[in-house]
Amino acid sequence: MKLKIAGLIGAALVGACVTAQAQTYPAREMRMVVGFPAGSGGDIVARFYADQLSKIAGKPVIVENKPGMISSISADTVAKAAPDGYTMLIASVTSALAANLYNFKKLPYDPIKDFAPVATLQKTYFILMVRPESPWKTVAELTASMKAKGAKSSYGYGSPPALASAELYKVRAGLQTVGIPYRTSMASLPEMFSGELDFQFIDATAGTPLLSAGKLRGLAVTSGERVPGVNLPTMAEAANIPEFDIAPVWGVLLPAGAPQPIVDRLEAWFAAITKMEATRQFLANTNGASFPGGAKELAAFIPKEIKKWEELAKLAKIEPQ
User: Is residue 257 part of a domain?
Assistant: First the structure.
């Protein structure tokens, strides 16, 4: 009986400490880890949400860039961090927790067991782009030319959705084009501008300014539906690939074991951020789409996205490295 009472008292004390910790959270600056280098589309997304969170929380939110292994290094950094709410992962959940299971033979983290989901933020998509000086104004024209060039044609990619988009297009169109990996889509721009790369799927966050400035020409979007305000067909329409629907979802996660009251507080803050006028403007400027959801929604989404990418990896014939 004494042991039972002592156990109950201990549990009560732990619970009280967790509650007190949550009430004073955050007591210091927070760290938001993103798997893309400074200046990339992913970095732009991270810095926007970090800035908004800092305003709500009243403490600095430092963006820490951890590029490498297509966001796997950043995810692993957070998976192994102290579960105290001060280190969080902001990521394309589609890439870091789903697609990378099929891009790599072994990941250093478990996408479900090693994280505490907090919130979903937004959806994005990719744009099939070519040089404005190129003769291709439609996907059909690009396809015909790539078939003629055979294995001498090439594309660049800097993320799992970009790779899957290109490979699905390649397989379904019967192309022999060769993929060239880059740390980010932005890193490939010199080769895009020079014509060494024939085409590339670039995320809308980074790609929209390039379209607006006339530096690249867009042919189609990877989402299953047309994007409001963007005068481009979908790849499903333009390439006659009905199953083409690639629109990555961004979310926030903590290390597994994070106190539930802290998860709840962050969930509420991010829910408020997704409703802000500043967020609406940000998404409009980067052609993103709001995709608000809490911890339960994100926890349910991850397994579904893993299943989707298992099927997509087979369709695109992606071999794990």
Answer: yes
- Give per-residue pLDDT as tens, 231-242: 899 999 999 999
Residue-wise pLDDT tens digits, 43-55: 999 999 999 999 9
List C-alpha distances in Å: 128 to 157, 197, 234: 11, 12, 10
Sign of CA dihedral 283, 71, 247, 260: negative
Joined tokens for residue 313: 């990896």
Q: Would you say residue 309 lies in a domain?
A: yes
Residues 60 and 160 in one domain: no
pTM to 2 decimal places = 0.86
CA–CA distance, 137 with 216 (Å, rounded to integer): 11
Alpha-helix runs per DSSP H in the chain: 2-24, 41-57, 72-79, 93, 100-103, 139-149, 160-173, 189-194, 204-212, 235-238, 260-274, 277-286, 295-315
Same domain, 141 and 167: yes
The parent domain of residue 298 ranges over: 28-124+248-315
In a domain, 254, yes or no: yes
Cβ contacts of 281 within 8 Å, gap of 6 or more? none
Q: How many structural domains are present in the chain? A: 2
Check whether residue 278 and residue 219 sit in a common domain.
no
Paired strand residues for 202:
127
